[in-house]
Structure formats: structure tokens, C-alpha cells
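Journal club prep — side note

Before the paper discussion, L.F. wants everyone to see what a predicted structure for a comparable chain looks like in C-alpha cell form. Sequence:
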Amino acid sequence: MHIACRAVIGILTLIAFVVLLLPHLAAAGGAPVTPNAANWVPCGDAFPGCELAVVQGDPSKGPSDLFVRVPRSSVFPKHWHTSAEHIVGVSGQMLINVEGGESFYLTPGMYFYLPGRAVHSARCDVPCVIFVGLDQPADTTLVK
């Protein structure tokens, strides 16, 4: 009888853990976000037509993750960012040109690491969505 009582207490403790604590642990990790459900805002005057959606962090203060949506026939002129960029193609294809490097098409599922202060430009001939992870606050410096 004593063993059965311990088993019941153990099961009740486990249930209490699952019901009370587990939802808080799951919430601490955030929720999944898709580009379709993201909150889009304009990228700014330097990149007309471009939109971004912050999915994690605060790009004005520190590390963050963003979706960037670019309409067809859009061009990003030469520029650089203080932060390194971790870029993943989500949809469409983006032609990326890195100064002193080669040009290539970023396609869905492809990852590209761009070091901070690397001068680059880009173009989307079709609508594009990319995911960008930043290590530092977001900034953009145009290059003439």
C-alpha cells in the first residue's frame, strides 16, 4: 500500500509539472513565424518597395532576426552594414554582388554569410523573401 501511495504522488507531481510549468517553458522560446503571418513595415528610403518584418530581437538595439520582402525588379544599390548578416533564401531568387567577390543567385534554402562592412548590392528580378540574422544593431551605409 505504501508503494502505491508513492506512485500516485509521483504521477500527480508529474501532471502538476506538465500542466503548470511546461506552458511557461514553451512560451519562453517564442512562437513560430511564417512570412505570411509576419508584421511587415517599409525598409526605409534607401530601398523603396522593400519591406521587413522583425521576428526576434530589436534591430535598433542589438541582435535580431528579420524577414525581408522585395518586389519584382527591385535593386539594392551598393551599401554595407556594421553587423554581419546571416542570410537564407525563402522564396524567389536574389542576385547578390559582393565587392571583391563573385556574384551569385541566392535561392530558397540557400545560406550565405556576409561579414560586417562588406560592400554589396542585390537585385530581385522576381519577388523575393529572405531571412536575415544580424549580430549587432541594424544600420545601412550607402556607397557611391
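L.F.'s comment for the group: The radius of gyration is 22 Å. Keep this in mind when we get to the figures.
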